[in-house]
Please model this.
Amino acid sequence: MDLLSSIPVSNSWPDLTSPLTPQEDKASLPSTLATLVPLLGALSDGLQIFDSEGHLIYVNAVAAELLGYATPDAYLAEHRLGAWGLTAIAFVNLANHPLEIADYPCVRALKGQPFAAQTLRYVDLHGRDRCVAVQALSIPDQTSAQPTGLVQYGVVISRPVAEPLLASPASEPCTPQLQQIANAVPSLIAYLDPQERHYFANHAYLKAFDETLDSIQGRGLQTVVGPVIYHQLQGVLHQAWQGETVNVCLPIGSFNPKKQYKHVSLMPQWLGDQLVGVYLVLSDITAHKHTNDLLQTETNFFRDSLEAATVGIWDWHFLTQKMMWSSPQEQLFGLVPGSFDGHPDTYLALVNAADRAALHAAIDQAMQPQQNFAAQFRVTLPDQSVRWLSQRGQVVRNAKGQIIRMAGVTLDITVQKEAEEKLIEQAKRDHLVAKISQEINRSTDLNEVLPQVVQDIRRLLQVDRLSIIDLQSKMLGKVTFEAHTPDTESMLTWEMRHPWAMNEAYLQKYRQGHPIAVCNVNEQSLNEGELEFLGFFQITAELTVPLLEDKKLWGLLSAQSKQPRTWQPEERRLLETLGRLVSTAVQRDRLHHRLTRANQKLQRFAYLDGLTQVANRRRFEQFLNHEWRRLMREKATLALIMVDIDHFKAFNDIYGHQAGDECLRRVAAILRTAVQRPADMVARYGGEEFAVVLPNTSVEGAETVAEKIRAHMHKQKIPHRGSQVCPFVTMSLGVAVMLPHPLKAPDDLIKIADNALYRAKEGGRDRVVCHTPASQLKTSE
Model:
């Protein structure tokens, strides 16, 4: 349907149940007639003029008096009580038959039907029998470039008669009053008798053909208008002489150098059953026609351009609740051109149910002042594909501001929407990759973040299960991390023989870094066991990418779906990217663990004595300083035991250095056995001298530990022929306890512990000597 050229024209006759008030009638009087009011009021005949909707827009005093009204205003006021202004009076013809409303002169005139002069009888409002001669004239609508067949004005002329006789229109077609009205209008008007001779012509007609009223009387039409115009009028004249009222648009070009367009109206005039003449009305519509042709040309160009661009055009008339669609509009909705029924409900039903609420909201929004219509929605085409449409439109209001229609265009934005969705999905993928990368980089333990990473990937890909399969354990394909929907079976506890994880042909592809995508397992050549395995875990489609470490295959990242699925290239790229990220993270995590172990080993080497495997002198000093600061804050005591093997040089000289090293190792073991608290420390202070640090320990507690060490040494009974104390290896121990203080230092504790050790040696060796806090305070004083 061509929307731009399908504007309907209503031919329905209006139901006038509430005519205008006298003031409204006067206000609606056309300017052409308004200037003639004084002249019309002076006519001796009654005159009534009706507009196209049946409103009585003018009545003179003669017409009002003939019906029994005192003034024209009184008649106009009465006019509101009924249609056509005449229902208050019942008319009969000369045969005493009541006249039907449809046959009233004004009604016939406004319907464009001929109404020759008739004599009518009636009883006026004062009960007087009256008799009038009535005739009516239809003035066609001249506002359109094309003939519409509508009447713009109806004129009723009435004259009182003493007897039922009326002059024949053949002898008197136009009264002087009617001639005055005709002369006032710009249209060319002439009256022709059956021989096409001029009987009357108005001033515009005479001027156009350079004639006078006397020169034109009785002359034939062809001799006045010329053979060219006459030839153009012959066809419509034939119709008029057949009794048809004719309205056409003709190009007239003989009496003006430029081609002109005339709206031609021919109105047959009847006397009873006899056709007695024809009114010829020529209205100039040249400018209107040229403008209309230009608009039509531009409209056609615009319409053709829109159709070539697949742009739909629509027009929604709210008064009639009808919609008009162009052919491209129907095609955009998946309809065959010409099949749309014009109902708004049909239009709304074509819109995806999920988008209808938003569409209704957009329509409601457009009804607001200074708002346009804009909506986007989906439609399902006959092949079940989905198309996105965008509609733009604007409401049209009448002079009272009421919305009467809305028109606009429809565009196919499916490609744009698909691009937008791809951009959104790509943004989600990029965001996920960045998020996973950050989480992995921040994490010190990959085992803590991988479960959430796997869950995020599964949700983005919208799969039923996503798992990391470890292939290092004899290539059994053990699932180490997994995320799945609540109704999907877990594979975490399984060591499996997966067809795409275990088959050597596929493993070879994985080693080369290639992913494997399976859209439907039922379309693969699998044995019964493999199908049974996949069926148990509800795997119908699978996308798997390899996890490599230094080009060595160690695992798989597998996305699985319960339903057949075509894996898109962007999904493959995403899983490959995430696979590389996970693989790199795992490789980094393993390297981190190896480095950590190496660092721990190096640290042990740095802080352990290589011979005795207890803390060395460096670690001893670091630990003593740390505990000194801590216990100073806590205001607690710190004990130190200095241990020296008695006559160890003689032991080395007698038994050799290897035996001496073994002795040192056994002494270190004795110290570790005696000191059992995790917070305590045993260290080799140098040569055959050892130190034991006891945080939060009193003098009594430290002395007890020292005696326990000496007793364990005796139990070992390590022979020592060079000892001057005992035939076995013995130890001397000096004990010191201090309350750490800002004015003191750890070296002070070492010094007093050394002093106690010295006194133990001076006192005969193989003994424990304690330096008490009291003596410490006394010495410090």
Observations:
- The CA atoms of residues 519 and 567 lie 7 Å apart.
- The chain has 26 helices and 26 strands.
- The domain at 420-594 is CATH 3.30.450.40 (Beta-Lactamase).
- Residues 1-27, 163-172, 774-781 have pLDDT under 50 and may be disordered.
